[in-house]
Amino acid sequence: MTSTATPGEIAKFDALAAEWWDPQGPMSPLHAMNPLRCGWIARHLARGGDPARLGGLTLLDVGCGAGLASEGMAKLGAKVTGLDAAPAALAVARAHAAESGLDIDYREGMPEDLIASGSRFDAVMALEVIEHVADRAAFLEALAALVKPGGMVFLSTLNRTARSFLFAKLGAEYLLRLLPRGTHDWKMFVTPAELGAEARRAGLRVTAISGMTPGGLKQGWRATPDVAVNYIVALAKD
Q: What's the whole-model pTM score?
């Protein structure tokens, strides 16, 4: 299978490992949106619809970094495996999970490595990852191969629109400096239509989609019908 990783992107995020868990640091936008992302996924995944009861479902977090979303889902009851190709970020993830008393299986590698091992999961998530991969089609095929039939794949990413260029690229990186410059390449952002079509070719179908919008001060992020900038999507494997 074609490698889905981009070495430059791996190195970029690995260099931020020591600052990953600082809610005021370069990963502050992920800290702010993480409750929304985890809650949204749990509501679409949980048995009985209770987002606090995932019933031990096996969940793979692809591109887990230092474990923000992995820990969030583990606290909701999922049995989480975190996967990343950045060793320094994984070292931070393992240490933080141990301090938090969470049993998360962190592994270094890429999705194609797990496919070769025969691993399969009830659900797979890749949050703020697909806009950084070398080959979107190959990446989606790998995610589909890693989820069991009847399982779910969850992605969150950035739409390629004028608004996303203004707010997520220029605003976040250059004006407000919420993210390090060069974090994103706007040309690699993906529209919902592109993502839906590529997912279908990988054997996945869209079952839900929602925009993610920052609220006011201390209000956190909220789900919205507006997908012009950030959005999250649920994909089913039949």
A: 0.88
